Structure formats: C-alpha cells, structure tokens
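Q: Structure tokens for this one, please.
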Amino acid sequence: MASNSPDELTLQIMRHLEVDAQWVRHFDPTDLVGIAESRAAGRRAGRALKLKVVTVESDSAAREDGRGVVVVAVNQKMAPEDDARLDERARLLMDEAFKGLGGP
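A: Here is the predicted structure, written as tokens:
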C-alpha cells in the first residue's frame, strides 16, 4: 500500500515555499539524479500547497563555480487568505527556530 505522505525533500521544499516563496539548492553538475529529484519534489510541493510553481536549473558551464543551481519558486499572486496563512506559518516557524537561542 503506497503512502500519500510527502517525502522528506518535498516537505523541506514545502516549508521553504511557505516562508520564502522559493527554495534554492546548489548541485555538482554531474548529480543529474539529485537535480531531477529536486525539480520533481518542487512540483510535488507546489501541488501539495495548491500553488503554481516554476522549477528551473542553471547552466553550470556559465557559472564561475561550475555548480548547478535548482530553484523552485512560487509563480502566482496568492489569495489574501493564503498570504495571511503563509505569513502566520512563517512567524510560527521563526518563533520555533529562535526558541533555542535563549534570551533575556
């Protein structure tokens, strides 16, 4: 029986899209499987969040460092209620991230 829950990479991309509306990762240009998996996970993340996304890959030969870059980005203006929901989600994630830092 197949599981409908997203894989770890898709979840990671979903979290980034919720907070920053984009996800970026650098790859060795020979990592064709990693590049393809990242782009596919980006499309799955967009579908799961009901967002239109675009996935692009840079030309590694055109970069000084020779790395390939995959970008998954939201490609639509969000409805006000979705925008508010994602803003709240971003605040919650940032609060959680900063909890461990301590403070006065």
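A few notes: The chain has three helices and three strands. Residues 10-94 form one domain.
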